[in-house]
Amino acid sequence: MITAVHERGVHLRRQRAALALSDQAPITHVVVAMADPEILRRLAPDQPMSTDAALPIEVLEIPRSAGRLPLAAARNAGASRALESLAGPEDLLIFLDVDCIPDPGLISAYLDASRLRPEDLLCGPVAYLPELPGETLDAASAQELAEWAAPHPARPAPEPGEIRTHGEHALFWSLSFAVRREVWEKIGGFDEAYTGYGAEDTDFSWRARSHGIELTWVGGARAFHQHHPVSRPPVEHLNDILRNGALFADRWGHWPMEGWLQEFERLGLVRREGADWVATGDARRSAQNAAGSPT
């Protein structure tokens, strides 16, 4: 399993506490710390939620890229390290966002699905938890998490045991997904030209589609997204969205994240120039004012 992290140590500890209760443990858990040299201290066994002490872990550290978090590079580095522990083309890479708490059956569900659909890009449903006291969340069972969490309204939410093939690649998300080694190598991993916020996962799914790799949703691979404050639209990521969006559009002929771009346009931060989106004169000041906002 691969998890990229930046300053979400509490979320990571909850994830690892849940992994320790999985019905099938990962061979290893590769944690890629992006500009976060304190992550090992936050994972110390004398900290709360120390039930994960016996769960294998490897920690990689990578710096920022031109001041931005290198999420694509972090996932690639984690995959490379994980593949060193795996033996053959049938072995499975599972990626889980640091904000996600896995259901006990997530790993086994992905493994079962990979045997049925070995050439596919596999996605698990992620439901969103409400804001809860930390002690409540720490003590919650998987059944309680499932009762509290709400499915994402725009993405499939198959039931445990259900597998939906021929999924729309536009709905791929990198919060929770799995691929076999041979599929990962066919796609080529994530494009590290994308840095900072946005588009690297959409580019990944579009390249999968270009190689004829189908998207399959795995109902049993459930995860629960921990609540944290966000800004809507993410004004502090405006420059990243414009830069990464332009890179994507140059490659695929259309812009991703158009919902956010339309919100920025409504706020007067961007405008259309032909087929492109560009920042207005107010964009820099607004992005600087939002720099301290939660992400």
Write the layout of secondary structure elements.
Layout: E1 2-5, H1 9-19, E2 30-34, H2 39-42, E3 58-62, H3 71-84, E4 92-96, E5 100-102, H4 106-116, E6 121-123, E7 126-128, H5 134-139, H6 142-148, E8 150-151, E9 163-164, E10 176-180, H7 181-187, H8 200-210, E11 215-218, E12 223-225, H9 238-252, H10 258-266, E13 270-273, E14 276-279, H11 283-289
Parallel strand pairs: 1-2, 2-3, 6-11, 7-12
Antiparallel strand pairs: 4-10, 5-12, 6-10, 7-8, 9-11, 13-14
Report on this structure.
The chain has helices at 9-19, 39-42, 71-84, 106-116, 134-139, 142-148, 181-187, 200-210, 238-252, 258-266, 283-289; strands spanning 2-5, 30-34, 58-62, 92-96, 100-102, 121-123, 126-128, 150-151, 163-164, 176-180, 215-218, 223-225, 270-273, 276-279. With 295 residues, the chain is of the alpha/beta class. The chain starts with a strand and ends in a 6-residue tail after the last helix.
Give a quick rundown of the structure.
The protein has 295 residues and is an alpha/beta fold.
Radius of gyration: 19 Å
Q: Report the structural category.
A: alpha/beta
Tell me the span between the first and last alpha carbons.
Answer: 24 Å
Average predicted confidence as pLDDT: 90
Helix-strand topology string: EHEHEHEEHEEHHEEEHHEEHHEEH
Beta content: 15-25%
Protein traits:
11 helices, 14 strands, alpha/beta, 5-stranded mixed beta sheet, disordered C terminus, 4-stranded mixed beta sheet, about 300 residues
